[in-house]
Design goal:
The complex is a heterodimer of chains A (669) and B (197).
Chain A (H helix, E strand, L loop, with lengths): L1 H13 L1 H15 L17 H4 L3 E3 L15 E5 H6 L5 H6 L4 E5 L4 E5 L13 E4 L2 E2 L21 E8 L3 H4 L6 E7 L5 E9 L3 E11 L5 E11 L4 E2 L12 E2 L5 E12 L2 E14 L12 E18 L3 E18 L6 E18 L5 E21 L4 E24 L2 E12 L3 E12 L5 E12 L3 H5 L18 E13 L4 E20 L6 E21 L5 E13 L11 E10 L4 E10 L2 E2 L5 E2 L2 E14 L2 E8 L7 E3 L8 E3 L4 E9 L1
Parallel strand pairs in A: 5-8
Antiparallel strand pairs in A: 2-7, 3-4, 5-6, 7-8, 9-10, 9-36, 10-11, 11-14, 12-13, 14-15, 15-16, 16-17, 17-18, 18-19, 19-20, 20-21, 21-22, 22-23, 23-24, 24-25, 25-26, 26-27, 27-28, 28-29, 29-32, 30-31, 32-33, 33-36, 34-35
Chain B lengths: L2 H7 L8 H19 L8 E3 H14 L1 E2 L7 E7 L6 H4 L5 E2 L2 E8 L2 H4 L4 E4 L7 H7 L6 E5 L3 H4 L3 E6 L2 E7 H6 L3 E2 L1 H6 L2 E3 L5
Chain lengths: 669, 197
């Protein structure tokens, strides 16, 4: 009998479809009754969240509709960052529905909608800091780990807009746009100190001053250092290579500086970051035990201008200058090798937003960017031998327009179009169309179609070894990658405390750039060989209760495949996230995070198993006057997991961090 | 297309992770339930100005004024008053360690004494003059109607799909040396300001 029950249980749970079927049938009987919204006699006793959900009996005539965002936006606030103990932008992004982050011990890689080819840098996501484009001029890369340009304590909020954004932002807004918004105001002195295991320490000092004209000046400097955990790489388990053990070889050191002067219509912002990372995993066939050292440096300066003109119109402008430097030191038996790149660029943009036309909200703009210097070098240090020496410059311009039209009070249409011209490879034109409909007051239905592109960067096009027998070849004829996305999104405010959302999408990527070996001469070259499609269902919700408990949860079912229908490498079929924030005694708050990442294929058809990570943070804010203290545990259950990596490595997947702890204190003077 | 395709084709029971998958499926179905289930009780309707008064009270709770001043937090209505008794309900309530005092004023001079000032749509033509008089003052201006944010009002109340919502102009708040809590900004339908793209 028990064998039969076992057999049934195994069969039942063996096929997901049957489990789903049974759960679906059971669901109507287990649903809680819908909560009725009774308006209190005294509305001032209700929290804001509830006030926003009450149905109002309009005394005056129906007001003009406000324009609505055509895409779904996820916002992570500074409070979330503190509550859940997010250490880097990568930690913040890990908690966002639909996103996942993997690492190769040098950089953090961001995947969206099941798409993250190992080794592909974050070129298919546009990263903005206060609207300034951070993706650099050599690799078009968005740094999100400890190499991100800002200290997370300076972040006011992070807005993630999922979906194609090239109709507004141009290249790189392939899967989405991340806008990191810095704190608008700081007064006094703030000092933060962090201590963690694996010799981790971080310090920050920030000063804020309110100026006489009502403006504000913020200055902040941070320093971070971590010794790294002890790792075992079975591929190197031989006596000659320390039996595969790498300890204290993952040193990570970074320094950041930030300044912001804001007054009236003008804001001047400056940021600088330098980061030095040791990678113990011996990529590129380097000597195991001698870590690869990568040094990244990024800086920018941006002047932002915003002015309200008459008639519900606003003029915005920006002037910026940016730089990025990269140096990689690789140790081989023969001679140490160095990889260098330098990018310098400047640009400007002008933007006009107007709600002057009845029922229309129009945005139009013009952008120009000059890549002054794009330099890539690779050479053996001693004896000196140059392999790659490419220096060039380029420019690009873009013009865009978007109109949101209130066709009916509960039906809006959004139409956007942008045309870009790059000096290296011609033009691109991309639209985005959306319909936003409210069949009932509490429901929102969004139907969206958009296309986006990613321009090939100078690394893919021109990193070539001219020495005879050289490994890399240039490809000046590389075209942009394009993606077409269709999405249907639903949102319902279920009660005064709960909101649910669902999104169904499908995308098609063409001209995917991949590094292949040219059969003619055996050299590596980037070509537009690939094509991929993906589809998925994302479900999620948010709850904010009157007792202060907050929760956010999301589940993603996704599948991304190549043109032969084969599932892509490093593409998890399932993602699940849960964040719960519970206030305890006075000033104490507990933030718990659980993230599940499904199994992923590696490049050698192996599997990097699925894993569930749990993070816990206990925060005591203003427990003692002016002092906030946070204690966090990451990967609480010490789950051992690996992330697939590219062919730069001997290994097919790299083991990641086990459990780690951190204590942080912030003191305001 | 979409769901049915990959649910039918894909067998999700990868051996090590099937337990977690079922947890994932349960969470997913609860979310579907939330979206698809119909909620029979219809919300009671709330009078517009009672709700607006409650919003003004909440805006006061989530805003920081520069220090100083007496023990009263003045919530004012400018000119033609559509609130009536709805606003008087706020009088004497505790807010930010002060007590609310409801004031009705019809002149820019009177408005300078306010902490929160509501300007109705009926007073639209007087808005520009009022805002220039309040330029150096720490007054949280709340308005309604198209374009008030662009004119310099800090918060705009809107009725949309029979629900109250609001938009914030952070620049206006900054100019008045007010700090609006991110808790409130998060609930806004839109936030305009120097730091948004």
């Amino acid at each position: 009998m028990t064998n039969e029950i076992h057999g049934f249980a195994r069969w039942f749970s063996g096929s997901g479809l049957k489990t789903w079927g049974a759960l679906l049938l059971a669901l109507p009987f287990s649903l809680p009754a819908g909560a009725a919204n009774a308006a209190n006699a005294d509305l001032t006793l209700l929290p804001m969240e509830q006030l926003l959900s009450l149905e109002v009996m309009s005394a005056s005539k129906f007001s003009q509709k406000v324009s609505e965002a055509p895409a779904t936006v996820t916002v992570i606030t500074a409070e979330d960052i503190r509550t859940y103990g997010h250490r880097t932008l990568a930690d913040i992004l890990r908690s966002i529905p639909g996103l996942y982050v993997t690492s190769d011990h040098s950089y953090s890689f961001l995947g969206a909608r099941g798409f993250q080819p190992p080794g592909d840098y974050n070129t298919r996501m546009l990263l903005l800091v206060d609207g300034y484009r951070v993706n650099d001029a050599i690799y078009g890369q968005a740094y999100v780990g400890s190499e991100f340009i800002l200290d997370t304590d300076l972040i006011e909020r992070v807005e993630y807009v999922a979906g194609p954004g090239s109709s507004l932002y141009g290249s790189n807004a392939f899967f989405g746009v991340i806008n990191v918004i810095t704190r608008s105001r700081l007064t006094g002195v703030e000092v933060a100190a962090t201590l963690g295991d694996a010799a981790t320490r971080k310090g920050r000092a920030s000063i804020g001053k309110t100026l006489d004209n009502g403006g504000n000046l913020i200055l902040s400097a941070s320093q971070y250092e971590s010794g790294g955990q002890r790792f075992y790489f079975p591929e190197f388990d031989q006596p000659a290579t320390h039996n595969g053990v790498a300890s204290n070889l993952e040193r990570d050191r970074s320094g950041q500086f930030f300044a912001k002067l804001s007054q009236q219509d003008l804001t001047l912002e400056m940021a600088w970051m330098r980061r030095n990372k040791h990678n113990p995993a011996a990529p590129y066939g380097t000597v195991f035990g001698q870590p690869v050292v990568t040094a990244d440096e990024q800086a920018f300066m941006a002047l932002d201008y915003r002015h309200a003109l008459a008639d519900a119109t606003e003029l915005g402008g920006r002037l910026f200058y940016g730089e990025n430097h990269y140096q990689g030191d690789y140790f081989y038996d023969a001679a140490p090798n160095r990889d260098l790149s330098t990018g310098k660029w400047w640009g400007g943009e002008l933007r006009l937003t107007s709600a002057a036309f009845l029922r229309h909200k129009v945005v139009a703009g013009l952008e120009y960017q000059k890549d002054l210097r794009q330099e890539q070098l690779n050479f053996d240090v001693a004896p000196y031998l140059s392999y790659v020496d490419d220096r060039r410059s380029a420019w690009k311009t873009g013009v865009f327009v978007q109109d949101e039209y209130a066709f009916r009070d509960n039906l809006h249409f959004s139409v956007g179009l942008r045309h870009d011209r790059h000096s290296i490879h011609g033009g691109a034109t991309h639209p985005r169309l959306a319909a936003i409909w409210h069949p009932q007051p509490a429901d929102t239905v969004r139907l969206l179609y958009g296309s986006a592109y990613r321009a090939p960067n100078v690394y893919e096009m021109f990193y070539a070894t001219e020495v005879p027998g050289g490994m890399f070849k240039s490809n000046p004829n590389l075209r942009s990658e394009t993606i077409h996305t269709y999405e249907l999104a639903l949102e319902r405010v279920a009660s005064s405390v709960l909101k649910f959302s669902a999104s169904l999408y499908r995308y098609q990527i063409d001209d995917l750039i991949q590094q292949v070996m040219d059969p003619a001469d055996g050299r590596q070259v980037f070509q537009n060989t690939g094509s991929a499609t993906g589809q998925g269902l994302e479900l999620g919700g948010q709850g904010m209760w009157q007792n202060g408990i907050k929760t956010r949860f999301s589940v993603a079912f996704q599948r991304a495949q190549d043109r032969d229908g084969k599932r892509l490498v490093n593409s998890p079929a399932h993602l699940a996230k849960l964040n719960v924030s519970v206030p305890l005694a006075q000033g104490l708050r507990l933030g718990a995070e659980a993230q599940y990442l499904g199994a992923r294929k590696t490049r050698l058809d192996g599997t990097a198993g699925g894993y569930l990570l749990a993070n816990l943070t206990l925060g005591a804010e203003k427990l003692i006057k002016n002092l906030d203290v946070y204690a966090s545990a990451y990967n609480l259950f010490d789950r051992r997991f690996s992330d697939p990596v590219s062919s730069d490595y001997t290994q097919e997947a790299l083991v990641q961090d086990g459990r780690s702890f951190r204590v942080k204190a912030i003191y305001h003077f | 297309m979409g769901t049915s395709h990959f649910l039918a084709v894909h067998n999700p029971s990868c051996r090590p992770g099937w337990r977690w998958l079922n947890i994932v499926c349960v969470i997913g179905l609860l979310a579907i339930a939330g979206v698809c289930a119909s909620f029979p009780a219809r919300a009671e309707q709330v009078p517009e100005y009672d709700l607006k008064a409650a919003f003004l009270y909440n805006f006061a709770q989530f805003t920081e004024w520069p220090g100083g001043g007496d023990n009263f937090l003045r919530i004012c209505v400018y000119g033609r008053d559509s609130f009536g008794a709805a606003l008087d309900n706020l009088d004497g309530k505790a807010a930010r360690e002060k007590r609310v005092k409801v004031v009705r004023t019809a002149t820019p001079e009177g408005a300078k004494q306010c902490d929160v000032l509501f300007v109705g749509d009926l007073e639209r033509e007087r808005l520009a003059v009022l805002l220039s008089a309040l330029r150096e003052k720490n007054v949280l201006t709340v308005g309604e109607g198209e374009g008030v944010l662009q004119q310099g009002v800090a918060i705009r109340l809107i009725i949309e799909n029979n629900r109250m919502a609001f938009e914030v102009n952070l620049d206006s708040a900054k100019k008045s040396r007010l700090v609006i809590s991110s808790k409130l900004l998060r609930l806004a339908r839109a936030v305009h300001g120097a730091t948004s793209p």
